[in-house]
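Input for the complex:
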Amino acid sequence: MGFKFKSVETKWMEERESVMNELIRLPRRNFVRVAGAAAGAVLAKSLLPPHSFQLIEVVKAASPESPAVNFSIAYVSDTHIYTTKLNDRFVRSALKAVDDVNRLDPQPDFVLFGGDLAQLGKPEELQLGVQILKGLKAPVKMMVGEHDWYLDLGETWKGLFGSPNYSFDHKGVHFVVLNSIIEKDFWTARGMTPEQRMQTVAGLDNGVQSRFEVGEPQRMWMQQDLAKIPHKTPIVVFSHSPLYKYYRPWNFWTEDADEVQTILKPFQTVTVIHGHTHQVLSNRIGNICFHGLLSTAWPWPYAPEGLPKLTVQMSRANPFDMNDGVGNGRIDVLTDGLVNKIYNLWDRNPVSVPASYLKSNGTKNRPAEPTFDSY
Amino acid sequence: MTRTQRSFSGRAAALAGRAAALLLLSAAPAALTRAADSSALPLGIPQDLYQFVIPKDNPETPEKIALGKQLFFDTRLSADGTVACSTCHDREKGFVDRFPTSKGIHAQFGKRNAPTVLNAMFQQTFFLDGRAPSLEEQAKLPIVNPIEMGNKDGAAVTAKVAAIPEYVSAFNAVFHQPVSYDNIGRAIAAFERTLVFGDSPFDRFMAGDANAMNESEKRGWSLFNGKGRCMSCHGFSSTQPFFTDNRFHNIGIAAHKANFVELAVKARHMVETGNIKQIDELAIQTDLSELGRFLVTKNYADIGAFKTSGLRNIALTAPYMHDGSLPTLWDVIDHYNKGGIQNPFLDGGMQRLGLSESEIDDLVAFLGSLTSSQFKAEGDAEMQRQKELAATKRPERDTDAAMGRKGDLGDVAPDPDVKDPALIGRTATEK
Amino acid sequence: MRKFHILLFMPAAVMLAGGPDTPHHEAPDTRNGNVVVELCDGKTSLEVKGLKPGETMNPDQAKDVANQLMLAWQKKNPGMKWDMAADTAKDAKGKIPAPGTESPEKKQFETYGNYTSRDEFIWKQEYDKFVAEGNRIFHDAKAFGGTVGISCDMCHPNAANTHPETYPKYQVQLQRVALLRDMINWCIENPTKGKPLADDDTRLRAMEAYIMSQRKGVPMEPGKH
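Predicted:
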C-alpha cells in the first residue's frame, strides 16, 4: 500500500480482528456460548472500543451440577415495524437483529419471533416484516402480537403465517404457541373504525382496550393438545402476553392466567417465553418459569407495581442511544427442560439469567444489579 | 360539542341592523331564548359552568320562561304602571338604559347604573354590591324599591299580579301554587337565564379562526393580558369566560366626590347586616350608595368597592362604572391608565399603566370584539358613537400620571407584553 | 289534649343539604282539637283547621299549610331565604350573615383567600382540561410535531420514567442544567424527530402539566440522578 496512516475503518477492522482472535483462544465450548451473545453485541456496534467489550458473565459450560444444553433457539421480538417512508429506525433494528442471529455459530435450531411484527397491523408493514425475517438462515417459528392482529382481526396474519396457535415437538420438548392477545370486543359499542381500534390497542396506557386473554376455546384446545403429552415431558409455551398477572393497567397481563397455569400445573417443567413487555423479566410460579423477551424497537419502563421478585431489573435506558435497552437474545434449552437465557442488549453488556437462578428461587447465580433505577 | 353549534347564531349573523335584533327578541322563544336543555349553548359559553349554576329549586321549563318573559316586560308590576324591568334593562339597548343612573317611577333617578341582563346568570352575586345572592332575589328587589318600581312590599305586588286572571292561571300551571312574590322572582330569573350570548369575534378567534379579530384587537388582547393588567380582575378562562373575578374592588370611581370615612362611620351604625331591603334602599336612594360592598359586609376592605363587571357586550352598556360616570370606553381606560383615583381604600392592584394612545385604542378595539354576533350592528354603532364623543373630550385622561411624571401610583414593569395573543388563555391547542 | 307534632321540612334544598341540627320545640297545645304542625325553625307553628288526630292531609291541604308556615316565618325574617337560614352558620351574635358574604366571623377577611366552592369548581375544571390536553398531545406524535410516528407514551406509558420531580438537574444528554421542559424538547427533537417547541408553547406547557400530574405526591428531589 505505501500509506503511512491508517484510516478509521481500517483501524476498526483491525480491532475487531484482534477481539475475535482473543475469543478464539477461549476453550471451544465456552467460546460457542460467548460468541453467540458477544459477537452479536460487538458487531452491532458501529464504534467499537475494545475495552468496553467485557462480558459480565459467561454462561458456564455444562458441569455435573447443571445439566447439559439440549439445543438452542434464538429470538427476535417486538419489532414494531413502520413502513420505511415514515420511520426506518425500527426496520434497521429488525435487520440488525437478523444479522446478529445469522452470525451465531453454530446456528440455533430455530428462531422464535415473539410477536408485534408490525406496529399498526398494516399489510405493508407485515409484508415488510416477512421480507426481513426471510433473511434468517435458521427456520422461524412465528407468534402473534396485538399490534399484528387488531387492524383486521388477524386476516393478514393468518394469510401469511397460518393459524396463530399451534404446537410442535422438538428434541423431546413439547412446544405450544398461543394467541394470547385475545380481547373482548370494546370497539363495536364505541363505533370505532379498524384504524381507531388498532390505535387504541397500540396505546399501552389508555385503559380503553380490554385485558388480554387466551380465551376458553383456545384453553380447551391447549388442554386437548396437552392431554396426550406425558407429564415428564418438558413443555415450552410461546405466548405474547405474559400468562401471569404483572400490571393490569398496561396489559402486562393475561386475564385468564390462573386457568392457563392450572392447565399447565400437572407438568413437571414448564417454561413460558413471552413478548410484549420489552424488558428483562423473569418470574416463577410453582412449576412454571416465565421469561420475557427484549424488543428490537424500544424498551418499556418497569411497571410501578407487580414486578416479579425474581426479576433483576435492567438499568434504565439512555434516551440518546436508540439501541439502548433493546436487542434480541438466545435461549438454551437444557436437558431437564429448564432454560438459560442471554439477553443480548445492544450497546450494553449481555445479561444472562441461568436456569439455576430460577430453580433455586433466586438464591444462586443472581444476575448483576442495575446502576440506575428504572422507574 | 357546543363549539360547532352555530345554527342559531348563524341565522342571526345573516340579518343586520337593530330592527333585526328587535325582530329576534320579539319572535317566538326559540330564536332568542333557548329550550330548557343546554345543548345549544353559543360558541364560547361553557357547558360545565352552565350546569353548575342552574339552581336546583328553579329548573327551566318553556312555560316558566314564557311567564318570566311576560313579567319582565310588564309595566303593571310597578306601582303606577309605568315601569317594567325592561324600562331600565331595555332589550333594544343591550338590556341597559344608557343613562348614567336609572330612572324609576315619578321620574326619580337612583344612584346606581343598571347592569346588563345579558349573561347575568353567570354572575356569582347580583347588583353592583352583590347584595342579592341569586337572580331570583335580585328580581324581587327593584319591584319594591321606592324609587325604581315603587311597590310598597311583596304582598302588594303579589296582590296586583293575582288580580290579573291570565297571570293567575299561568302561575298555577307553572308552579302549582297561587301567585307569590318568590315565584315572581323565580319566573323572571328563569327568563333571564335564557339571555346567554357568546359567538363574538373573540370567541371565534379562541376557537381557532385567526382572522376573526383584526390586528388592533389582537394587540388589545395581548395588552389585556400584559401591560394593561386587566386580566387580574377581569379574568378569563375557558370555564369562566365572562371577564370577571366575581370580587369587589375599590378602583377609585367617585372617590373625589365621596368622603368614604365619614360615610362609613354613618353606615356602620345605621346598616342592619342581613337586611337586604334596607341595604337596597340605602344603595339606590342615599349617598351611602358610594360605599358599595361595605353596606353588605361591613368589612373595611370593602369600602367603596364594587363588583368587577363582566366585559362581554361591553360596547353596548355605556355609560360605565357604578354611577355611570364614565361615558365611553376611552374614559374607562384613561381612568385605569392613571392608576384610578387615590383614596384610603383604593385596591392595592391599581397602578398606573403607562399606555400610549395607540395602545388605548387597541384595548378599546379588543373590548369591542367581545360583542356577540347578534348585536354586531348595534355594537358597531355604539363604538362609533363613543369614538366620536371621545375624540372631542377625554375628561379622565391624565397622561402625566399615566406616564409616571407625577403622582406615585407605582412603577410599570418594563414592557411585559405577551407574545402570541392567540395562545393566551387557550386550554386546548386543537380546533 | 294530646299534642301531635309533625316536623315539616319545606324546600327540598334543605333536605338535600343534609339539614342542620333542627331545634326541637314544644309546640303550643291544640286549641280546637286539631293537629298542630310545627316548623323546624323551632318557633313557628300552625293549627290545621279541620284536621283531627289520625287524619292525613291531602296534597293541596299540605301545600297550603306549608305556604302558611312559610309566610309566617318570612314575616318574622323579612328578606331572608329559607334554605339560607337553615344551612348558613350564624355569626358570633347569633345573626345570620348577609347573603353573599360567606365568611363567618372567625375567618380573616381578605379578597384573595376568600374563595367559594364555585371558584374551586372553576379552577379544577381548568386544571383538568389543561392536563387532559397534555395527555392528548403526549399520546399523539403529530400533535407535538414528531415526524416518525413515535409518541411520548411509547417509552413513557402514564409518563413513567420521566421523573419530573428530579428537575432541574444536570442533564447528561444536554450537558447542562435543564428544566423538565428542556428535556421534553430534547425528546421531541431526538427520538421523535420533531422541531422543539417554544418555551411558551401551550402544547409544551400542557405536556408538562400532564407529566407532573402523574407524579402527584412524590417528594421533590431536584438534582437527583
